[in-house]
Amino acid sequence: MLHASLFGAWHAFYTAGMILEGIVTTRDSGGAIHVAPMGPIVDESLLKLRLRPFKTSQTYANLRRTPFGVFHVVDDVLLLARSAVGLLTETPPTFPAEKVPGAVLADCCRWYEFEVREFDDSRERAEMLAQVLHCGRVRDFFGFNRAKHAVLEAAILATRVHLIGRTEILSEFDRLKPTVSKTGGPPEVEAFALLEGYVRDAPNPRKDD
After folding, report:
1. pTM (2 d.p.)
2. Across 11-20, 98-107, 137-146, 189-198, least confident range
3. What is the spatial distance between Cα 106 and Cα 121, in angstroms, rounded to a whole number?
4. 17, 33, 179, 190: which could join 150 in a potential S-S bond, CB 3.0 to 4.6 Å?
């Protein structure tokens, strides 16, 4: 649980921070690497992360067992899309983290090794307050691209098909698709098609859809 003495100190950070979308790697009880998209709340210093995994997620279970992980800033939306909807068939190349028992995605732009210092399990989505212990850079971020952002929005929508409903999500996909086709390359087009197919074939859409 989050200690009351720390709540005030973190409150300003919560309200002033922004959500930075990326990918978190953790390790399960057998040491296997788990890859999952996540948007922690951060500020411009990126010295702290407020993670909010669902308590049913593998990331939550892994961090509850061992409070170390790595957050990555990436521009590979195909990787993000596959991991978002559970269609990542194999772990991408990694190398060992330097300060924590974790794994760094070899093709990320930047990475942030962290330790979770405080937990709050009182809500459906857990609150995990993490301290960044080390950061590094692999390569430059590709840059602003409308197709990549559209795929990111589509990936977030696809993970909510059981909450929002298939029809509404596909309507949003129709709005996003021209941006992907006009401004994206083959990876963005492939990622968007993958997400669209996932939503169309979702096994558990909202019942009133």
Report:
1. 0.89
2. 11-20
3. 32
4. 179
Q: Which of 57, 75, 72 is nearest to 114 (CA)?
A: 72
Question: Is the separation of the CB atoms in 113 and 49 below 8 Å?
Answer: no
Mapped to the 3 state alphabet, what secondary structure does the chain carry? CCCHHHHHHHHHHHHHCEECCEEEEEECCCCCEEEEEECCEECCCCCEEEECCECCCHHHHHHHHCCEEEEEECCCHHHHHHHHCCCCCCCCCEEECCCCCCEEECCCCEEEEEEEEEEECCCCECEEEEEEEEEEECCCCCCCCHHHHHHHHHHHHHCCHHHHCHHHHHHHHHHHHHHHHHHCCHHHHHHHHHHHHHHHCCCCCCCCC
What pLDDT digit, counting tens, does each position of 90-102 carry?
Answer: 999 999 999 999 9
- Please report how many Cα atoms fall inside a 13 Å half-sphere around the Cα of residue 166, on the Cβ side: 15
Give the pair of three-digit tokens for residue 20. 């930075």
Is the sign of the CA dihedral 98, 103, 107, 110 positive or negative?
A: negative
- pLDDT at residue 20 in the model: 97
Spatial distance between the Cα atoms of 156 and 138, rounded to a whole number of angstroms: 26
Q: Which two tokens stand for residue 67?
A: 């409070």
List Cβ neighbours of 37 (8 Å cut-off, separation of 6 or more): 21, 22, 23, 24, 80, 83, 84, 155
Of the candidates 88, 114, 85, 87, the one whose C-alpha atom is nearest the C-alpha of residue 101 is 114
